[in-house]
Design goal:
Keywords: Membrane, Transmembrane, Transmembrane helix. This protein has 374 residues and is an alpha+beta fold. It has helices spanning 107-115, 124-152, 227-231, 239-251, 280-291, 359-373, and strands spanning 35-36, 82-83, 213-214, 254-263, 269-277, 301-303, 317-323, 330-339, 342-351. The chain has 2 domains: 1-109, no CATH class; 201-373, no CATH class. The longest helix has 29 residues, at 124-152.
Length: 374
């Protein structure tokens, strides 16, 4: 009997090959449990070995082809059936032992390893990053809250850096514009073509600072200053010229003069004069004349633009002057103002031994007076 090498059937899973036993004659059924019954004396026809594919779930190594056993010689008629002894297989041969484990993993198993998703690794890095940022935010929030609490608890004067440095400005009492008669416009209103201040001009005087000492020679809110006393602040020469200047002022439409003066603890003296005229036109003419009059305390002076830089209402003119060095008996700064029918004069002096007139309080005083006239 010739050997026949089995070929794999297309589309079928490869599986282990088994030995094919030639079928027995159809007249006698094949015995079970490995016994071979008696066969007739006639020579059986050779049977072509057929290899049937056995579907399996796992791939096993292909064993070497084992030649089929020759058919048993026919036993004489009437003989007892003889049991066939099993042929022992070579132990330990992984190529021929069907029970041996495959040396090469199954293709399906290998494919499965490639397709199967690996178990997701817990996102520890992300969790750690989130935890770190959360901890940092909590720390910053804690420090910020503690700092805010510490800043708000003590008094402002006890916190370094928050105290306003003393720049020499004066502390004035609350300043407010006086109440106007019913239906009267403001002096700079478009409907007030004459520019008249309908409020009492004495109520427009800047009050003295809190720590100042008032000069009783000036009437303040109690009365008006004589024109001749006002003209003594200028270098007019003899008394005849003073009297003549007073007459000129009355003829120029001067109605009355409000005045106030005070001295600060540092020795700086302030004098404020408000001259009210019949209309704004008269006031403008007298202002031009007064610019040609030399202040007795400052025979030589130059322009000081500080008072008119900021804080002056629109429509109020300010002309600042500062005494030139070397100072005389006292350093002097003064400013001429005009708003409607009122001409103002603010003079600050300081004894020469104390130095120049402080800039900040001078500008502060001029601006506040200009705002009261606006």
């Amino acid at each position: 009997m010739s050997e026949h090498t089995p070929q794999p059937v297309p589309g079928a899973e490869p599986g282990p090959l088994t030995q094919t036993v030639p079928p027995m004659p159809a007249t006698e059924p094949a015995p079970v449990a490995g016994t071979v019954p008696a066969v007739p004396a006639t020579e059986p026809e050779p049977v072509v070995e057929t290899v049937l594919p056995v579907p399996v779930t796992q791939t096993a190594p292909v064993a070497e082809t084992v030649p089929p056993r020759p058919a048993a010689e026919p036993a004489p008629a009437g003989a007892e059936p003889v049991a066939l002894l099993p042929v022992p297989e070579q132990p330990g041969d992984p190529l021929t032992s069907p029970s041996a484990q495959p040396l090469v993993p199954d293709a399906d198993v290998l494919a499965g390893h490639g397709d199967a998703e690996a178990p997701a690794r817990p996102p520890r890095r992300k969790l750690r990053a989130v935890a770190r940022w959360t901890a940092a935010l909590l720390v910053f929030a804690a420090f910020g809250g503690a700092a805010a609490y510490g800043v708000t608890q003590p008094e402002r004067t006890h916190i370094p850096g928050l105290r306003t440095p003393d720049d020499g400005r004066y502390t004035y009492p609350p300043v407010a514009l006086p109440r106007l008669p019913s239906g009267s416009p403001r002096p700079l209103a478009s409907s007030n073509t004459a520019g008249i201040h309908y409020a009492d001009v004495r109520s427009l005087l800047l009050p003295a600072p809190v720590t100042a000492t008032a000069d009783p020679a000036f009437p303040g809110a109690k009365g008006f200053l004589p024109t001749k006393d006002f003209l003594k602040t200028f270098d007019l020469g003899s008394q005849w010229f003073v009297d003549d200047a007073a007459t000129i002022a009355r003829d120029a439409g001067l109605r009355h003069i409000a005045a106030r003066a005070w001295t600060m603890p540092d020795g700086t003296r302030t004098e404020v004069y408000l001259l009210q005229f019949i209309t704004a036109g008269y006031a403008e003419t007298y202002q031009d004349d007064m610019q040609g009059m030399t202040l007795k305390a400052a025979p030589e002076a130059s322009e000081d633009v500080g008072p008119q830089r900021t804080g002056v209402p629109v429509g109020v003119s300010v002309d600042g002057q500062a005494e030139d060095k070397p100072y005389g008996a006292a350093a002097v700064k003064f400013a001429r103002l005009r708003s409607g029918d009122v001409v103002g004069l603010v003079v600050q002096t300081r004894k020469g031994a104390l130095g120049a007139v402080p800039e900040v309080p001078f500008e502060q005083t001029v601006r506040l007076q200009a705002q009261l006239l606006g």
